Amino acid sequence: MTAPRVAGYTPELGAEIVRRVGAGESIRAIGRDPAMPGSVTIHRWLNENPDFAEQRREARSKARQAAASAHLELIEARKARRKHDWGRCDLYATEIGEAICRRIAAGESMVDICAGPDMPVTGTVYEWLRVHPDFSDMYVQARGIQAELLADEAWSIAKAAAPATVPVARLQFDVIRWRAARLAPKVWGEGDKASGPTKINVFVQRFSDGAVISGPGVGER
Question: Which DSSP state fits 38?
Fold first, then answer.
């Protein structure tokens, strides 16, 4: 049974609403919390209580200033990264390559890895792969390990599937299998198209006694 909504305003409840507004939440989001009054009730309280309304305005102003500052910091960080010398291929170091490959082998994507402030952008990493064979070899091995981890994850999903969750589990399994095949096509792909047509040997057997009467190698000594 659903608990009844809070009906009356209290200073403690008002302080909690103001705190959440200051943390960046909207009145609508707060009102969706079953433990809090609905948004209509909160707006009624704001109209009836000038002190509460003023506290909420101050909290919202601080939240907006904090969000704006965070956005400016993100922009400055992006500008700083664009000025970084990572774009030069001669700045590649084995330690950086090993760190990238370890994180790939652990299951991280290249996009997530390169989003870090201490990592080069994706374009630089792919350029390093082109000009540094040792890094390229490590990368291929790391992708293979990542594919093995994905295969294990797909197996876990398949084992945990219940009749009610089979459609979702099947979708997850197919996506993970596709990803594993992309990372290690020789192991998890749908067959090697470059290997040529498959050779089929045909034998003819007599059913009365089971003797093979024709086929490759039959009758040869």
Answer: -
51's tokens: 């002190």
CB 206 within 8 A of CB 213: yes
Say what the pLDDT of residue 199 is: 44
Residue-wise pLDDT for 189-215, tens only, equals 665 444 444 444 544 555 566 666 555
* Cα–Cα distance for residue pair 48/68, rounded to 1 Å: 30
d(CA 178, CA 185): 10
For residue 41 the two structure tokens come to 């009730």
- How far is CA 172 from each of CA 21, 26, 48, 166, 168, rounded to the nearest angstrom? 37, 34, 51, 10, 6
| Bridge partners for 205 per DSSP | 212
Residues 6+ away with beta carbon under 8 Å from 103: 113
Rg (CA), the chain: 31
Tell me the DSSP string of 148-183: HHHHHHHHHHHHH--GGGHHHHHHHHHHHHHHHHHH
Buried b (16+ CB within 10 A) or exposed e, 6-22: eeebeeebbeebbebbb
- Among 71, 39, 72, 69, smallest CA distance to 56 is for 39
Which is more confident, 166 or 221?
A: 166
Query: Which residue, among 102, 96, 109, 73, has the nearest Cα to 183 in the 3D structure?
Result: 109
| Summary count for the chain: helices (H), strands (E) | 10, 2
Instruction: Give tens-digit pLDDT for 83-132.
Output: 555 555 567 889 999 999 999 988 888 888 988 878 888 888 888 988 88
